[in-house]
Amino acid sequence: MKHLFALLLLMGCAAAYDGAQEPPAKSWPVNIFQRPVAPVQLPGPARLEDFIVNGKLRLGLEDALLLALLNNSDISVNRATFEISGFAVQRAHQPFDPLITADFVPTRSVSPSTSALNGAATLSQLTQTSTVGYSQQFQTGTTVGAGFNTTRLTTNSSFATVNPSFRSGLTFSLSQPLWRRAGLFANRAPILIARRGVKQSKAEFESQLNNTVARVISQYWDVVQAARSVEVQRQSLERAEASYKHDKRALELGALSPLDIYRSESKVAQRRIAVVQAEYSLKRAQESLRQAIGADLDARVGALDLELTDSAEAKGDLASVDLKDALALAEKSRPDLEAQRQQLAVDDVNIRVAANNLRPEVDLSATYTSNGVGGIVFDNSGNVVSSGGFADSLSQVGGFGFPTYGVNLQLRLPVRNSAAAADLGTAMVSKKRALYQMRGLEQNAATEVKNAVHDLEQAEILLTASKDSLDVAAKSLAAEERKYQLGAQTIFFVLDAQDTLSQAEQALLQAQIAYQKALTELDRATGQLLEKHKMTVGL
């Protein structure tokens, strides 16, 4: 229950990470990934210092997962890919965004006259045109528009009866496809594809997160195994040293031949080598886990030893899994299968869109314009008849007394539409390919589930057998030591029993780790790993 803060940070909530904020509590509830309003600045390692205890980085398994969610680079990269997909839906709405346009075009024209009808020896005109327009396409394919324009014309022509003149017009237009690209689906298809893309990206991110979490858990248990292996090797070394001290004392008392002490001395040297090897294996395992949880991002914290608090010992009854139920759960819950289902849905949309594009184009459009003229009116003698202007032209436009209207029905029937046919063929082949990919994913999922179930069964059998083997090895060592103390057995059998006990301890440790990893792999294979650790990915 610790990941809410982590996952809210991962999805770039409005509250961006601030290194000076209060430490997170250690009992966070269910986590929800929010769609991004993502900060661009990359935060540093988060709250590693909260887990420092007595100079060590003390972590439980859930603590390690929390730090991985906050600091793991692979998760951050995959999260960014998921965030980007969200903007595709916004982009798909672009064709339906309203558009406002405005223009002002003044033009001065001065030209020599070639005819007395021009009304001046040198004709000079000033034209000032202003337009304002609004247009919008709706998801039914309907496009509506409204525009207002006015032109002010000033001229030195003696024949101009209105000078300056204002010509204004208010135009309404409507266009509707009747066949191709008609209806909601044909126009909403990019939005549907984008939304499917977001769901597909979400499922892919879940799949990547599923794998990363499984890898972090595996690395955690690797460190647990390596640390416990060091302890086993050190205990084995202590037993060998105790035997060597006993033989050395016997040699000093003359009860042991000088040639018989070399065996125990050699065994001490061998086990010291094993301890060193185990210690460096532990260092390698710790470095991998540090990278996974982002501890290497802080030099001070990265230098601390790891102290892992979760034990690999199985608690309670061993898990019992029905293969048929596990397969059904994987079919329902695996995110990679969900991602492929979304791809199949996208292919279905593409096929319908391509089929729609093969239809002929039949478009109906209509326009209506109300006209108006205003200005200073002159008679034939050049006297002013009336003084008017822009307001007069607006009055006539508003009176709708001088309309211009029309209807246009257009048919475009291509003899051959190679591009649309190719798009349809491509979409159908893509769907076929996606079906084969789905079948392959289902086969892989079934194989992974079966292997996970079999590995879990094997781990449970080995765990039980390893406990019995350890018990027998401990009793055998005790018996050999007793015989040796009574002089009825040589040191060879004691050292051999010590080796057997160490091997049994290692075998039990390996069986415990294998059991924990098998549980994790089964959860991953069935798509239950994130839910088990109370992680959810939301849009």
Describe the protein in words.
The protein has 539 residues and is an alpha+beta fold. It is 55% helix and 20% strand. The protein has 12 helices and 12 strands. It has helices at residues 4-10, 61-71, 73-92, 184-252, 261-293, 299-302, 323-333, 335-357, 390-399, 418-485, 491-525, 529-532, and strands at residues 31-33, 52-53, 56-59, 99-112, 122-137, 143-155, 162-177, 305-308, 361-378, 384-386, 403-412, 535-537. Strands 4, 5, 6, 7, 9, 10 and 11 form a 7-stranded antiparallel sheet that branches. Strands 2-3-8 form a 3-stranded mixed sheet. Strands 1-12 form a two-stranded parallel sheet. A hairpin with a 6-residue loop joins strand 6 and strand 7. Helix 2 (61-71) packs across helix 4 (184-252) and helix 4 (184-252) runs antiparallel to helix 5 (261-293). The radius of gyration is 41 Å and the shape is elongated. The two termini are 20 Å apart.
Nearest-integer average pLDDT:
86
What gap, in angstroms, lies between the N and C termini? 20 Å
Question: Order of SSEs, N→C?
Answer: HEEEHHEEEEHHHEHHEEHEHHHE
| Rg value | 41 Å
Main sheet record: 7 strands, antiparallel
Unreliable spans = 1-45
**Portion of residues in helices?**
40-55%
Give me the count of strands. 12
Structural class: alpha+beta
**Quaternary status:** single chain
Overall spatial form: elongated
Number of helices: 12
Classify the beta-strand content into a percent band: 15-25%
